[in-house]
Each structure stands twice: as structure tokens, then as C-alpha cells.
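Beta-glucosidase
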Amino acid sequence: MNKKLSTMVLSLCVASAASAQAPQLNAHNIDQVLQAMTLEEKAQMLVGGGNDGFVGSGSMLGHQKKLVAGAAGITVAIPRLGIPATVVCDGPAGVHIDAHREGTSQTFFATGFPVGTCLACTWNTDLVEQVGRCEGNETLEYGCDVILGPGMNLHRNPLCGRNFEYYSEDPIVTGMIGTAMVRGIQSQGVGVSMKHFAVNSQESDRTRVDERVSQRALRELYLRGFEMAVREAKPWTIMSSYNKINGVYAQGNHDLLTKVLRDDWGFKGIVMTDWIGKRADLPVADEVQAGNDLLMPGYPAQAEDIIKAVKEGKLDIKDVDRNVRRMLEYIVKTPRFRQYAFSNKPDLKAHALVTRQTSTEGMVLLKNDMFNGKAVLPMEGIKRVALFGVNSYDFMSGGLGSGCVNVPYVVDMVDGLKNAGVSTTPQLTDIYTKYVAYAKSKLKADKNPWMWFLDQGQPKLDEIDITERCVEHEVPEADAAIITIGRQAGEGMDRNIEGEFNLTPQEKQMISCVSSVFHQQGKPVIVVINSGSVMETASWRSLVDGILVAWQPGEEGGNAVADVLTGKANPSGHLTMTWPIAATDVPSTANFPSQPDYYGLTDALYDHRVKGVNYTDHDEDIYVGYRYFDTFNKPVAYPFGYGLSYTTFSMSGFSAKADGRQGVTVKVTVKNTGSRPGKQVAQVYVASPKGGEEMPAKELKTFAKTRMLNPGESQTLTMSVPRRLLTSFDEAGSQWKGEAGDYTFMVGDNVEHILGKTTVKLGAYTEKVSDALKPQVKLNLLRKK
Ligand code: BGC
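Predicted C-alpha cells:
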């Protein structure tokens, strides 16, 4: 044999010996790969991070540079076994990656979709699924495998800093919208990470706060939306939250991650921690044992802890193997494993159209008074407006923190109106434009380096003082005034009542001055709310003629607002949360952080266990949102489900019939009785028979939205409610329990506006589940009697 041939034979032998020893991962040899893994490799698999052979590099702050710059993290590659790294990026309002990369002039902008609250307010599951398909496609085409969203926590309290990322105060809305989003994203062959599991209801002390809550409220409210989406949409991954639930960290909570999630609901994917979740008081072994498969992003010490715990007999290798198997099952599904050739060129133009349509559908018209003999909106004969409020000129497309998106542009109100043929008064526009440029550079110069989130989204700029003289100057030149009231919020901070939930003194002055001067001249005033969360309206709404909640509607914001104001789009959004008169009307406010200056708290304060910061008692129990206001007959500013249209609708022929499978089929015919095309939402509420647990006066059980109905046109909507949703949670028996008797079904277009009622007789129903997540302290639960 010549030398060259013998070298070739030798290298072939070596290669085949290596591959005989080390199987290369595929969908059918997971057990074999698992067997071939060393303990060190198994530990690596469970600790996410860098991609240079071991964990812990480059992604500590949720910003890794390798593979996809600006993605939140990666799972570890083990080339010996053909295991690639996979990439996870934030979520949930679009793909959060760096727009610019070193060494190339190519840009990597992602579409800014409406924030979760705005999406949910569409009540349009088909449209949300379409947004999901676009987001999934951008995830895929930018080389990511999982997007860290949707955000599925409940709006327990209007002051929570991250409510904008979540859908609703109601678990059924959360479950139905979340299911649609997961389906849409995963239809593209990438995964979601539904977050933050669970009860991540406040941001103050978010990494340690103990959410003390009854088993009933957990099952009926905080877990319900996750449960629906797990059962119906099969998410690839779930993110465990930072907080404790009844004394146990969610990320090390066997009850939550195994008994409830896997045993009760049949979840088959992986659980990953929220970011940098290493805790001094939570052994890594407990997390592995609890069913938390992936610690994100990783520290080398965490992998070492796993190895040590196994060697010392503190962690069963079977638990490690179980989690590693789940990781391998996840990896073989990913685009990276399939070696998908991503383009880095998603169709941003097509997705901009989707975001514009979706945001117009999620905007909620709160007020539309008669002005000079006709409704003030849609604007007719208004060709030039005086545009007040700094956010008219610095429109906020999304919130702060990991949920922000590096968008290619944000259409502000000036351009949005201009595109719709409405101009703005020149002097005011000039003053504000110059002020915004100044305020932005000042903010940059003043930046506190510890406030990392200032780089993560568009901070709110201070308002300008609006004087009577300024308004008097504008009034002759304008047909109407539009005032934008902006609010920003985000990760790591809750909102204050003063100045955030309530108006600032400057804003009050601006609204009253603009209204009085414009009204004296017979010209109307419209307020646009550019906020991801609820705010106070009751004290000032009578001063203005129209109020549109635009939320934080994504990059096409100004165009979408103009579509609604001018009537190109007829608003069909409805609130998915109550707008209370005062923040203190919400019962959980008593147990919510009264000291939202989280960064000002000292360790001493921590050690003293501050109520509402270090722990929060869910004394309001099941009475969250409208469940409280409706049951206790407390007035609100705008009720759950509320939203006006430029047309009118009737609902008739409402029926509810047992479906033979213990559930109920509901039908209602919606007719457009007005003069413009429009869409309407039928909301189905149920009052349960007496006899079992104390129940809210009524609870939403399902909903459906019509297609675009022309004037005079009708559509019959058919919906079904499974029996297991017509129950309450019986803690003593660890079961879902539905009483036998008459269930009153109601249909309406908000919780206070019921248009049809009927009853259905149902037999008793029970469904056993695990006894899990028991409170460790006695809570003082709110009850009617
Ligand atoms: C947030 C998550 C986010 C993660 C990665 C955390 O601080 O709570 O929502 O997905 O960071 O950026």
C-alpha cells in the first residue's frame, strides 16, 4: 500500500471509530446520544450561555454576540455529538436583536408589532395568529430558534410595569389570544417561550418577591391562560418566572413545573429560567429536580454544581437524564438543527401592513361626543390640527426593557396625519420637533449607567409647559386640537400612582387650557393615549370631546392612529382590562408596592421583608379586575370589554345549548345597524348556579369577533365552551368542580352591557388534579359575605 492510500485508510478508520463511539444526534437516536454523553456534557446541556465549548461566555446580560448579535442567549453546542447551539431572542412585540453589526452596513431591523395589550384588545384571534406568523417568520429568517414570548401574566394591578407586554386581567382572553399567538409563531417552524410562569404580577423586587396566593386563584386565574395554550397550542418552551409562589421560587418549584405543568396539563417541551436566575438561596440541584430543564444564561458554576450534586448523591442522574432528553427533543425540532439557510431578509414591508392593520384593530375608542351637531370622530372637515403633547412628535411604538424591538422607523403623529391628508400647525410643530431633538440628546448625556433599560426602548420625555398664549396663537390656524398623552413603563419597575397612573400637573394644565381655548372658538379637542397601560381618565374626560387609546401600537403607530381618526379604519378594539376611576379602587393596590422606587431600596429594607415589595398577599383572591368591580357593584371609568365604533350593532337570537359533550354551544347573530362597515365582538359571560364556592357575579367564558360587516349585514357567530371552563376550583378536593343546575349565559359588548340572556341546565362535573402550590400563610381573602 502506498503512503497516501494508507493515510487515507487510517483516517477513515479513525473517523468511523469516532462516529461509532459518538453517535450524531438525529430525531431517532436521542436515547443513544444520551447514553454517549459524559456527565460534564449533560451538565453543559442544562446550562445555556456561550458557544465556545463551555457555558457562561458572552450572554450574561441577555445580549450575546455570537451567532445572532443582540439575541438574548444560546444553548450550548456539543459538536462531538452533532448537537448545535440554538439561539433564543426576545420577544414578545417583535424579534429583539441588534439592528447593526460590526463589519457590515447591512441592517437587521425587525418589525415593531403592537404590544401585547393592544393585540389582545383586537379580540381577533385570526389576526393575532397572523401577527404570530410574521413574528415567527422574522425569528426564522434572522437565524433564531425560539422567540421569548408571548407574555401571559395577568394584569393583577394597573400599576405593574410590564402590563403592556401581557394581554389582559382575564384568563380566558389571555388563553385564547396566547393560543393564537403560539400557533402563529410555531407554524413557521420556530418555537415560543411563554412567559413568565407564573404569577409574575409585579416588577418591584421581581427576582425575590413572594406571591402569596390561594390555590383557587392560581388555578382559576394566574395559571388558566398558560393551561389553555399548553393544551391547545403545544408551546416548545416555557420560561419560569423569577418570583416565588407561596414561598418557593417558581424556577425551583416541583409543584409548578412538574405536577401542574406536566402531570396535569401534559406539557412536553422544555422549561427555561428567566435570565441570570442564579440564586444564592436556591440550589441548582433543586431546579433540575423540579423540572427546570435549562438555566439561562449560564454560569460555569451552575454546570459544576450539577456535576458535584450528582457525584455527591444529592441529585439523581435520572433527573438530569430526563431534562437532557427533553433538551435533545427540543434541539432536533429547531431550524439550526435542520440547518435552515436563513436569509436575514424577512419581508419587512409586508409585515408593516400587518402591524398597521392590527394596531388599528386594537385601538379602543373611549369617547366620541357630539360636537357642533355630529360626532367628533371620524374627523370630517378637519384639515389642519394643532398637535400638543411631546409624544405626538416622539410616538412610542413599544415599551422599555427586553420587550422592546429595534424597529426600522416609528411613524409619529405628524407624519401619520400628513399621510392621511391632515396637516399640523407649523409653529407648534416646529417648537415640539426642536424640543424633542434637544430632550433626547439631554437624556443621553444625563444617562445613569445603572439604568441599563434606557438603552432598551424609547424613554418618555418630559412635557413642555403649555401656556394660554401659545394655545391662543394656534387656535386660529387649526380646525381642531389633538393632545397626545404618553406613558412609558417597563421591566424592573412598577408605576407610580402620581404622575404615571394619574396625570402630571403639566398634563392637567395642558388639557384644561387647550380645551377651554379651543372650545371658546367652537373647535373640538381629541386626546390620543399613547400608553401600554391603563391610566386615570375620570377627572379630565369631560373636558375633551374624543378619547382614543392607541396603546403602544408598533412602528406604524402614527399611520394607524390617523387611519382611525379619519375613519379609514373603524375602531373595533375593546378593553381587555378595567379602567378604574382611581388606582386605589383596585383591591390589590393595598398590597402592591407603595415604594416603586425599587432602585432606591437598600438591603436593610430587603432584610426586613417589606410588605408589597418582598412579598405580596393576594387578599383580593379571585376578585381581580372586573370580577371585583362587577361583583361588588363598584363604579369604574370604563368597564372591561368596553369600546366604541363609528357604527352601531344589534345582537339577537342568542342561544346556549348543551353540546352533548358536557359543554355548551352558544350562538348569536350580530347585525350592523349603522351606516359604516365595522366589526363587533360578542363577549359571552356566565353566572354559575349557587351551591358551590362563592363565585363572581359573572365571568367571561368565550368570545368571537365578526368579519367586516357592511351596513345592514349580519353574521351568526357560533362559539363553544367546554365544561371544564364552567367550574371553580375546589381546594379541599384538589379538583375542578361544576355544580349541577342552571347556568345563566349572557352576551354583550362589555361586562356592563348585556344584550342577551338565557339559561342552560348542566349536570355536576368534577375533574381531579394535583394538590399543588399550597399557601404557607393564612391569607385574608376578600369575600362578599
Ligand atoms: C426578562 C425576560 C426576557 C429575558 C431575556 C429578563 O430580564 O424578564 O422577559 O425574556 O430577560 O432578555
